[in-house]
């Protein structure tokens, strides 16, 4: 007779089949490694409050506040005139 | 390959835009105008029209291909990958923004003592599993919540409508046209252009040729819903709408029926949370396809975990507070999204159409 634990384990194994989560080729491993390293690096930076003076949001602001202001139709962008 | 129906696609698109739209758009519209706030919601339709045009070019030129695959076809493997990485940055920034908005919304409204990163960790775990299961499952979950939304939302807003006062809208169209346009910029270019993520799902669509129409239908429905919501919010709350982060939450909190029906905001936050998770999973599906194309992998099952991890980390790192998120959406997102998913794909399709026309004319010349 099949034990309850075996049934539960089979259900869990079917729902979360970890073998499918693992990359197979070297290209997949490379992409997986880059994404995971970035994720860990960013999480550590957030935890240690490592925000550079010219952070990513500032760079986005430098690059895209101009086009956005053009869409708003005012040089000041979304600010009140 | 598992494919989704038109109905499922429209529902996914609808909740993708309305997920954060319901939570944040009334507040951003009210920054610019109250009198003409109702008209600004229709900016979503304009954004949907831009996406429908892009989608029309895509399904004509690249039927059965994703946007990142189309970029590789047009630009070659090296430059195509560069666009793929650009698209990945867009996808991760969008995911991080949605995650941070969600953490702040749930933290402020119902879980003030829980760190935001724990709330977003749970949301990212759920959306990661959804994106692992695939687009068909995401479509079915969207189908599942639709009847609930159809029943609960009219009851909530019908009860709030008893407090409606039309005076904030008088005189009719009284603000300058520029104020209405500026209020419509975020719905048009930040939220309306989100419909373009459907380009990443083209291989999974049962009828890719109808994609432009489906985007327009989803845009029209979401524009009407958003406009009705904005009218109700401004009509019930009046001028304070300008100063609230989550005016719809206050609208639902204002509902009182006798002694027993009150504090329905928990119901609204639960519904909002579900739609935000669905929005996260929709964007993760698009990013997973982009990672698959950029890495040249035939499989997609290994991708959701690192994508969700990076999205979650970025949502905690990029935006230190709600002000950062709002400022980013108002100041940078319209231009960023318009260039990334409007102009650049438009340029790609123009190059491809020109190339095909030139090849055709050369063949004709050779024939003669």
Topology record:
The complex is a heterodimer of chains A (81) and B (368).
Chain A (H helix, E strand, L loop, with lengths): L3 H12 L10 H22 L8 H17 L9
Chain B lengths: L5 H25 L6 H4 L2 H19 L5 H43 L6 H18 L1 H26 L16 H15 L19 H27 L9 H7 L11 H31 L8 H15 L3 H10 L1 H35 L1
Helix pairs in contact in B: 1-6, 1-7, 1-8, 1-10, 3-7, 3-8, 3-13, 4-5, 4-10, 4-11, 4-13, 5-10, 5-11, 6-10, 7-13, 8-9
Q: Could you explain how this protein is built, in words?
A:
The complex is a heterodimer of chains A (81) and B (368). Chain A is mainly α. Chain A is 63% helix and 0% strand. Chain A is built from 3 helices and no strands. Chain A is elongated, with a radius of gyration of 24 Å. Chain A starts with a helix and ends in a 9-residue tail after the last helix. Chain B has a single domain, classed as Amino acid/polyamine transporter I (Up-down Bundle), CATH 1.20.1740.10. Chain B has helices at residues 6-30, 37-40, 43-61, 67-109, 116-133, 135-160, 177-191, 211-237, 247-253, 265-295, 304-318, 322-331, 333-367. Helix content of chain B is 75%, strand content 0%. In chain B, helix 4 packs antiparallel against helix 13 (333-367). Chain B starts with 5 loop residues before the first helix and ends with a helix. By secondary structure, chain B is mostly helical. Chain B contains 13 helices and no strands. Classes of the chains: A mainly alpha (81), B mainly alpha (368).
Given the C-alpha coordinates, what overall shape of chain B results? globular
**Secondary-structure element pattern of chain B, one letter each:** HHHHHHHHHHHHH
- Number of helix segments of chain B? 13
CATH class of chain B: Mainly Alpha
Structural class of chain A: mainly alpha
The portion of residues forming beta strands of chain A comes to under 5%
What is the straight-line distance between the termini of chain A? 78 Å
Rounded to the nearest angstrom, the radius of gyration of chain B is 21 Å
Quick check: average pLDDT of chain A? Answer: 85
CATH superfamily of chain B: Amino acid/polyamine transporter I
């Amino acid at each position: 007779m099949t034990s309850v634990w075996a049934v539960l384990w089979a259900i869990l194994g079917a729902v979360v089949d970890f073998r499918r989560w693992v990359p197979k080729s070297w290209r997949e491993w490379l992409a997986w490694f880059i994404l995971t390293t970035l994720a860990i690096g960013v999480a550590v930076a957030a935890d240690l409050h490592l925000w550079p003076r010219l952070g990513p949001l500032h760079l986005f602001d430098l690059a895209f506040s101009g086009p956005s202001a053009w869409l708003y139709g005012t040089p000041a962008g979304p600010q009140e005139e | 390959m598992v494919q989704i129906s038109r109905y499922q696609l429209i529902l996914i698109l609808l909740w993708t835009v309305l997920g954060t739209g319901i939570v944040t758009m009334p507040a951003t519209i009210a920054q610019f105008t109250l009198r003409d706030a109702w008209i600004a919601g229709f900016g979503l339709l304009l954004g949907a029209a831009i996406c429908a045009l892009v989608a029309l070019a895509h399904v004509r030129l690249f039927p059965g291909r994703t946007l990142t695959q189309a970029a590789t076809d047009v630009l070659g493997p090296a430059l195509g990958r560069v666009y793929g990485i650009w698209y990945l940055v867009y996808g991760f920034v969008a995911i991080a923004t949605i995650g941070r908005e969600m953490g702040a919304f749930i933290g402020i409204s119902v879980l003030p003592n829980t760190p935001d990163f724990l709330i977003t960790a749970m949301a990212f775990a759920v959306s990661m599993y959804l994106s692992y299961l695939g687009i068909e499952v995401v479509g079915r979950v969207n189908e599942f919540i639709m009847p609930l939304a159809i029943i609960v939302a009219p009851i909530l807003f019908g009860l709030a409508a008893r407090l409606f006062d039309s005076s904030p809208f008088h005189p009719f169209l009284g603000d300058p046209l520029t104020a209405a346009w500026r209020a419509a910029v975020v719905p048009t270019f930040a939220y309306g252009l989100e419909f373009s993520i459907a380009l990443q799902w083209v291989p999974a669509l049962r009828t890719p040729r109808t994609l432009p129409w489906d985007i327009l239908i989803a845009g029209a429905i979401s524009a009407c819903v958003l406009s009705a919501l904005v009218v109700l919010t401004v009509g019930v709350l009046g001028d304070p709408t300008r100063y609230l982060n989550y005016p719809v939450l206050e609208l639902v909190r204002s509902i009182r029926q006798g002694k027993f029906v009150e504090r329905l905001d928990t119901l609204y936050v639960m519904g909002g949370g579900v739609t935000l998770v669905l929005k996260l999973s929709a964007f993760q599906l698009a990013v997973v396809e982009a990672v698959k194309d950029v890495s040249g992998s035939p499989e997609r099952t290994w991708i959701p975990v690192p994508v969700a991890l990076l999205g979650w980390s970025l949502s905690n790192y990029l935006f230190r507070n709600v002000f950062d998120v709002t400022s980013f959406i108002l100041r940078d997102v319209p231009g960023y999204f318009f260039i990334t998913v409007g102009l650049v794909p438009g340029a790609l399709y123009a190059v491809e159409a020109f190339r095909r026309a030139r090849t055709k004319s050369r063949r004709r010349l050779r024939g003669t």
